[in-house]
Write a structure and sequence with these properties.
With about 300 residues, this protein is an alpha/beta fold. It folds into two domains: about 90 residues, no CATH class; about 200 residues, Rossmann fold (3-Layer(aba) Sandwich), CATH 3.40.50. It contains twelve helices and nine strands. The strands form two sheets. It has a seven-stranded mixed β-sheet. Helix 1 packs across helix 2, helix 1 packs parallel to helix 3 and helix 2 crosses helix 3.
């Protein structure tokens, strides 16, 4: 194809390609929600990735002109986003969570949980910061929540449980990336099995909680994520049931359980009408996260 026939002919700067990519994304009807919520930010993430520029790129550089090879590479990645409907983090291999970068691939859910805000606030006012020495993260996936908890509680040991061997490998990479190998253990196994006999002041989980009907309605971008990280039987509560059933045996007397259930919140309240759930609120968006104390769990 000659240069005059290239669809990006005439585009020169970072801003040019971000605007062009965003326009094409909007025209293609892409879906967002994996770190961005609009086509402009999605295009910017991909353009910066190709150019090896960080998310803190000074705005005065947005007018910088791209070399010929860079223009072709940027256009190719933007086209992949349209053709394959892959979320940006799967194309870049990286996602940000709680202000930290994490490796991601198709073996794990892309980090986007409101747990980021909780970790950055050290789960205040729900736990005493100096009273947390052991944390358990069930269904850890990429390990982002486990790592964020380890940084929130610098004196604590964190166990991160994951059923998928491939996800566990990636979680260990992320633990090592943030220098947390001495305090974060990634354990392979099914929920409570790898931590039999252990108790924790804080147990957190972002488990699979999407029911069959909701799965069928998900946009194509979400279908690239591992089914086992999203789907939880017909009503979406299969894993939540097992978490609630075993939590009492693994919490200390003053321990706290925090679980994300997303759109399944109403179903959770209907299934356990006698449990006094505290539904947490978030300044930066997000919902469907409940908290229960060991006492409330009985």
């Amino acid at each position: 194809m000659s240069s005059s026939n290239k669809p990006y002919q005439g585009l020169k700067t970072i801003v040019d390609f971000v605007r062009w990519g965003a326009s094409r994304f909007a025209a293609a009807g892409l879906h967002y929600g994996h770190g961005t919520d609009n086509p402009v930010d999605e295009a910017l993430v991909l353009v910066r990735h190709v150019l090896h520029l960080g998310h803190d790129l000074p705005r005065e550089l947005y007018g910088a002109r791209l070399a010929k090879a860079e223009r072709a590479a940027v256009a190719a990645l933007l086209q992949r986003r349209i053709d394959e409907r892959l979320p940006a983090p799967y194309l870049t291999g990286e996602a940000w969570f709680a202000g930290l970068p994490f490796h991601v691939d198709a073996s794990v859910l892309i980090p986007r949980s409101p747990f980021a805000e909780l970790a950055q606030q050290a789960f205040q006012p729900w736990v005493r910061e100096d009273g947390v020495s052991r944390v358990l993260d069930l269904c850890t996936g990429s390990g982002c929540i486990a790592a964020a908890c380890a940084l929130a509680f610098p004196e604590a040991e964190v166990d991160a449980v994951e059923l998928s061997p491939a996800a566990a490998v990636l979680a260990r990479r992320n633990v090592a990336r943030h220098g947390l190998e001495e305090r974060v253990r990634v354990l392979e196994g099914d929920l409570w099995a790898p931590v039999a006999g252990r108790r924790y002041e804080l147990i957190v989980s972002n488990p699979p909680y999407v029911g069959d009907a909701e799965m069928a309605a998900l946009p194509p971008e979400y279908r690239h994520e591992p089914d086992m990280a999203l789907r939880a039987a017909e009503d979406g509560l299969a894993i939540v049931r097992r978490i609630l059933a075993g939590a009492s045996e693994h919490l200390t007397e003053e321990g706290v359980l925090v679980v994300e259930v997303g759109n399944s919140a109403a179903a959770v309240m209907e299934a356990w009408p006698d449990l006094p759930f505290t539904w947490l609120e978030f300044e930066r968006g997000g919902s469907g996260v409940f908290l229960l104390t060991a006492e409330e769990l009985g």
